[in-house]
From TrEMBL:
Transport is among the record's keywords: no
UniProt-listed InterPro entries: Elongator_complex_protein_4 (IPR008728), P-loop_NTPase (IPR027417)
Name of the featured protein: Elongator complex protein 4
Main location: cytoplasm
Record's subcellular location: Cytoplasm; Nucleus
Domain of life of the organism encoding this protein: Eukaryota
Length: 137
């Protein structure tokens, strides 16, 4: 006779409730339910394992000879703006627009901008093709 299938519950198993949280723009879910925020730099996100873990504290040291810290700040802030997240910029500068004006803009692809063909270009193409395809005689 076969023994009945009895599942034992280990004390090390997690009690996971299946509650779906609303998807927040800019967050990516990672392993074990960890939420990540993109740094705005794809390769840095890959090195970090998906981005900055939500709720983590990240400190970037300023280096006067290499302004990479400013690039990190700009791309991270731009990533938040693209995803409609609130943004707070605090600086001793009297004119924050000087920095905020240097934020990178989102890249747009050719599919985003459907352009109507220029009538002069179309006419020129037709004339060119007609002269190629015309065989006298």
């Amino acid at each position: 006779m076969a023994a009945p299938n009895v599942r034992s519950i280990s004390s090390f198993s997690r009690n996971i409730s299946v509650v779906s949280s609303p998807q927040i723009p800019g967050l990516k879910s990672g392993p074990n339910g960890t939420a990540f925020i993109s740094s705005g730099i794809r390769d840095l996100d890959r090195i970090l394992g998906g981005g900055y873990p939500l709720g983590s504290l990240v400190m970037v040291m300023e280096d006067p000879e290499a302004p990479h810290h400013m690039d990190l700040l700009r791309t991270f802030m731009s990533q938040g703006l693209v995803n409609n997240q609130p943004l707070l910029y605090a600086s001793p500068s009297k004119d924050p627009k000087g920095f905020l004006g240097t934020l990178p803009h989102p890249a747009s692809s050719k599919e985003d901008k459907p352009t109507a063909p220029d009538p002069d270009q179309v006419l020129l193409s037709c004339l060119y093709l007609r002269s190629i395809c015309f065989f006298p005689g």
